[in-house]
Structure formats: structure tokens, C-alpha cells
From TrEMBL:
GO terms for cellular component: outer membrane-bounded periplasmic space. Residues 198-242 form the LysM domain. It comes from the Bacteria. This is N-acetylmuramoyl-L-alanine amidase. One of its GO terms (biological process) is peptidoglycan catabolic process. SMART domains: Ami_3, LysM. Keywords: Hydrolase. It holds the Pfam family LysM. GO terms for molecular function: N-acetylmuramoyl-L-alanine amidase activity. InterPro entries: LysM, LysM_dom_sf, MurNAc-LAA_cat, N-acetylmuramoyl_amidase_3, Peptidoglycan-bd-like, PGBD-like_sf, PGBDSf.
Length: 386
């Protein structure tokens, strides 16, 4: 487990950094920080600590010390920039005392600039003129002096630039910034990262158009992700994969041949896992990798929070294997297996086994005549699978 400290800059009595219209840096960077925490923790490999999780005053020294005290592997302070008219782009500062972070800083800068479509100003470092050998930025200096091995400060965009302020005012872009950062951080620590796929359960009265609006996506995207044949036919209780997954960039894994025994086995497993096709139908175990099987695989991938491409590649088979191993899962557990359990017991899918999931698991256990201890052990697993 890696520990990361995310520091949303400013806040509390320090809310004066603003864009020309209505963007407030303290709020924008708090949103980015919360998203980054979510993205990193969704991998099950990170614990992310926020220096503040609300609008609160914190000194720069306190921020650096929080990171040092928690002995984190990485500290990253989140900011947006201000500068002369026309200035724009992303830049990332690293500590003068940790020159090895230059590459990580450069990658972060490039990734964020790319998702926003703005200039990549690259990796920078800034030495104090008063104290040569020390960092100009207090927050970097304190974290580094406190022994944090990797210390960064990111300026994701220029809020002083009206075009970039417009980008920062869209919540969707703040999420994209966090995802771009998460991807680079995961790569740095050798952790596999895939953007979270959201699963939405259709409520009565919903339309695809309304759902698309709600998740800031398009009807076409939802239709494509879920292999829906008739967009006017959705029904309450149907699970839909929503959210912006870069479908086109996914390299589909080689699919087993049609009529294959392996496909039949996959269909059998999906049936055991209660993963139905997009119309809620149990799969026919015919060994043919057609639209129904593809849609069931996509649904499973959405539930597991892995890349949704409809092909049963190594990542998908890996998660299936994890589930079939029926690991003891309880309060505090995280990741794809928890997501699957949440899907089966019918609680919001976030991959974190918290009090709400525990309560629903207990209910599920009682309903199935098991000891309601909230721990998913072999007996509960046997009710969930098969
Ligand atoms: Zn700032």
C-alpha cells in the first residue's frame, strides 16, 4: 500500500485567488484533490490523505508537516495558476533537493496539459534566493525537509486566463485533471490504473437522454458502451455503464474463437456470477462470443471498475479469478471484489466496504439464513455465486 498526501492549496481565510468570472482556486483545487483521492484509492493500492477536506485555513508549514508526519511516499500540492495576460498551460514544480523527481513532474505536466488541450509548460524547480539550496515554495520545502521522498506542486491551468478559467469551471474537467494525474502517479508506483466506470441503475421514468445529461455523456456513448439495440427500450432496474471511458483507445484483447469451449466456460462463469446481458437475460452457454456475451462482459467490467471493452482479456479474467477465489471480505476491504459484492447485494458501487455495505451484507445474510456478521466468508460467497 502506497501513501500519498494531497494538499488542496489555499482555503479558509485565503480565498482571494480567483478567475476573471467566478472561479475560486481554493474550491477548484479542493475538488481536484478529492477526485484524485478517489481515483487513487479505487486501485486498492493507495491510501490518500488530504491536508484539508473542506474550506479551511492551514499554514504552508502545517501542510508540509501533515505529509511528513504521515510518512507518505508522495506529497502533491494542488494549485491553479495566475499570471500576465495571455499566460496559460500546466506546470509542475519539484524540489531542488530531489532532482530525480524531474521526470515525474514532466510526465504529470504533460498528462494534464493533454487532457485539457492546453500548453505544457513542463517540470520546473524554484530555489529560494534568501536560502540557497532550499526550495522557494514553503510547502515543498517543509515536506521535503520532513523526509517525504517525492514532493511536487502542480499548477494544473491558469485561472487568470479566461479560456482556461472556463475549463476549470466545468466539473467534468476537474475530474479529468485528477484522472490524468492518477494515471501518471500509478505508473510511477507500478500500480495498474483504469478509469472508474460508473454503473447506473435505471429508475422508473428515466430516459437515456436524461441519464446522459446527468453523467455529462451522450446517448450514443451509453448505447455503445452497453450494446443497446433499441435506445427507447430501457427498463427500471437495468444496469447501465455510464461515464467517460475512452473506448476508442482501448486495445481489445484477442477474443476466443467462436464456438469455443473457452467461451462456453466464460458464459457459464458469467451466469454463476449472475451477470446477465444488457436485456437482463441469462446467457445461453453456446460458446459463441456474440452481442449478448459481449454486453455481459461489458457489464461485468463496469461493475468491476476496469476498462470496459467487452472482451475477456487478462484484466477481466484476473478479476473473475479473484472473485472465484472467494476471499474473506469485510469492513475496510477495497477494490474490484468489493465492487462485485456491492453489485450482488444491491448497494451503491464504490469499491469501499464501509458501514453501509456491511449493513446490506448483514441483511443479505439474514435473508439467506446465515449468521449476520457482515463478513463475506465462504458461506456467504456460496449464496452470492452459483
Ligand atoms: Zn495557488
Amino acid at each position: 500500500m502506497f501513501k500519498v498526501c494531497i494538499d488542496p492549496g489555499h482555503g479558509g481565510s485565503d480565498r482571494s485567488n480567483r478567475g476573471p468570472s467566478c472561479y475560486v482556486e481554493a474550491d477548484g483545487v479542493l475538488a481536484i484533490s478529492k477526485y484524485l483521492k478517489e481515483e487513487l484509492e479505487s486501485t486498492g493500492q493507495f491510501q490518500a490523505i488530504l491536508t484539508r477536506d473542506r474550506d479551511k485555513t492551514l499554514t504552508l508549514t502545517e501542510r508540509g508537516r501533515i505529509a511528513a508526519r504521515n510518512k507518505v511516499d508522495l506529497f502533491i500540492s494542488q494549485h491553479t495558476n495566475a499570471g500576465p495576460k495571455g499566460a496559460g498551460g500546466t506546470e509542475v514544480y519539484y524540489s531542488v533537493d530531489i532532482p530525480g523527481d524531474r521526470e515525474l513532474a514532466a510526465k504529470l505536466s504533460a498528462a494534464v496539459a493533454q487532457v485539457l488541450g492546453i500548453q505544457d509548460r513542463g517540470a520546473k524547480t524554484s530555489e529560494s534566493t534568501r536560502y540557497p539550496g532550499e526550495d522557494y515554495y514553503t510547502v515543498i520545502d517543509k515536506a521535503q525537509d520532513g523526509g517525504v521522498p517525492h514532493v511536487l506542486l502542480i499548477e494544473s491551468a491558469f485561472h487568470s486566463n479566461p479560456d482556461e478559467e472556463r475549463l476549470l469551471l466545468q466539473d467534468e474537467n476537474l475530474r479529468k485533471i485528477a484522472q490524468a494525474q492518477a494515471k501518471v502517479i500509478c505508473e510511477f508506483f507500478g500500480v495498474q490504473y483504469s478509469q472508474q466506470a460508473n454503473v447506473y441503475i435505471v429508475q422508473s421514468g428515466d430516459t437515456l437522454w436524461g441519464i446522459a445529461q446527468k453523467f455529462k455523456t451522450t446517448v450514443e456513448e451509453i448505447v455503445k458502451l452497453n450494446s443497446i439495440s433499441n435506445p427507447s427500450l430501457i427498463h427500471p432496474g437495468q444496469e447501465l455503464i455510464v461515464g467517460s471511458i475512452e473506448v476508442d483507445k482501448v486495445q481489445p484483447a484477442p477474443q476466443p474463437e467462436n464456438g469455443d469451449e473457452k467461451v462456453r466456460e466464460l458464459q457459464h462463469i458469467l451466469n454463476m456470477l449472475h451477470i446477465t446481458d444488457t436485456n437482463g437475460k441469462v446467457l445461453v452457454e453456446d460458446g459463441l462470443y456474440g452481442p449478448a456475451t459481449t454486453s455481459a462482459v461489458k457489464k461485468f467490467q463496469g461493475i468491476a471498475g476496469i476498462q470496459v471493452d467487452g472482451s475477456a482479456g487478462p484484466q477481466t479474467m484476473g478479476v473473475i479469478k479473484q472473485i472465484l477465489a472467494m476471499p474473506v471480505t469485510k469492513r475496510g476491504s477495497k477494490g474490484a471484489v468489493v465492487r462485485y459484492i456491492q453489485f450482488r447485494v444491491g448497494v451503491g458501487i464504490d469499491g469501499i466496504f464501509g458501514p453501509k455495505t456491511e449493513a446490506i451484507v448483514k441483511k443479505f445474510q439474514s435473508a439467506n439464513g446465515l449468521v449476520a456478521d457482515g463478513i463475506v466468508g465462504s458461506k456467504t460467497w456460496k449464496e452470492l455465486i452459483g
